[in-house]
């Protein structure tokens, strides 16, 4: 059973203008339920574009996006935003935590935006922070945390609303090799515990090898 089905995705920028660039040319990717897939691509190949389309942040020119069996292509902007907030978690190379809020608040805020009562949101945030080993830093602002701790908090934020699908773009790419290795282990454990389906872009073949399957994006198409 598929959690994510991207089929025949075509996407270009500046369509019809001199600066037109076609990035995706019929890309097809499936992530099964509970599967963790590595997306490996050279820089500029369209990895971020593909992840944004998969995560309902951007719309393909052609092709279909199915999330948990539901066709997303025809949705209104509002319905797409709602589906994204409730069903997709994002992790980036840089944590993008809100600097003026504590680690805990950074994990609470997306839940409040999703209609979760405050006490329940805080309990869930504490549980998530505990599971990734940063419970002791809950009341600190991001700037007070190490790079690895910041990414762990970003993982908790991505999982805060219990998404069905996790999309990650070089989730440990900003960390030194030893920290990257360790923090990636934390992420994989969290994903496995929650039974999440994930598409994780990385240049690191060692990390790719720790996932269930590797797909490669090149010339706008996906292999493997
Ligand atoms: P990757 O994540 O693999 O590095 P991207 O998906 O960010 O690749 O970008 C793929 C290509 O599309 C690049 O050539 C990039 O310059 C171009 N591109 C990305 N976003 C835009 C945009 N908003 N307008 C024009 N070109 C873009
Ligand atoms: P909020 O509920 O705070 O308004 P959004 O619905 O805008 O959040 O975003 C939901 C998720 O999508 C968040 O994880 C956010 O980081 C991500 N996101 C939103 N807009 C963008 C964007 N332009 N590029 C990358 N990620 C984005």
UniProtKB/TrEMBL annotation:
GO-annotated biological processes: lipoprotein localization to outer membrane; protein localization to outer membrane
Domain ABC transporter: 4-224
Example of a GO MF term: ATP hydrolysis activity
GO cellular component labels: membrane protein complex; plasma membrane
Keywords, ordered alphabetically: ATP-binding, Cell inner membrane, Cell membrane, Membrane, Nucleotide-binding, Transport
CDD domains, per the entry: ABC_MJ0796_LolCDE_FtsE
Family stated for the protein in its record: Belongs to the ABC transporter superfamily. Macrolide exporter (TC 3.A.1.122) family.
This protein's name: ABC transporter ATP-binding protein
Organism of origin: Tabrizicola piscis
């Amino acid at each position: 059973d598929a959690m994510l089905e991207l089929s025949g995705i075509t996407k270009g920028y500046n369509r019809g203008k001199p600066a037109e660039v076609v990035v995706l040319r019929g890309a097809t990717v499936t992530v099964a339920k509970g599967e963790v897939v590595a997306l490996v691509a050279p820089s500029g190949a369209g990895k971020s574009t593909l992840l944004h389309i998969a995560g309902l942040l951007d719309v393909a020119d052609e092709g279909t996006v199915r999330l948990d069996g539901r066709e997303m292509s025809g949705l209104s902007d509002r319905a797409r935003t709602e589906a994204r907030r409730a069903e997709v978690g994002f992790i980036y190379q840089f944590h993008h935590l809100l600097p003026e809020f504590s680690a805990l608040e950074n994990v609470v805020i997306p839940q409040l935006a999703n209609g979760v009562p405050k006490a329940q949101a805080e309990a869930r945030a504490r549980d998530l922070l505990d599971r990734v080993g940063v419970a002791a830093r809950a009341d600190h602002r991001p700037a007070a945390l190490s790079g690895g701790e910041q990414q762990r908090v970003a993982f908790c934020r991505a999982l805060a609303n219990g998404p069905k699908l996790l999309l990650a773009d070089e989730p440990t790419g900003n960390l030194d090799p030893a920290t990257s290795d360790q923090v990636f282990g934390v992420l994989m454990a969290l994903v496995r515990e929650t039974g999440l389906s994930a598409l994780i872009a990385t240049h690191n073949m060692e990390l790719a090898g720790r996932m269930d399957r590797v797909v490669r994006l090149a010339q706008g198409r996906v292999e493997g």
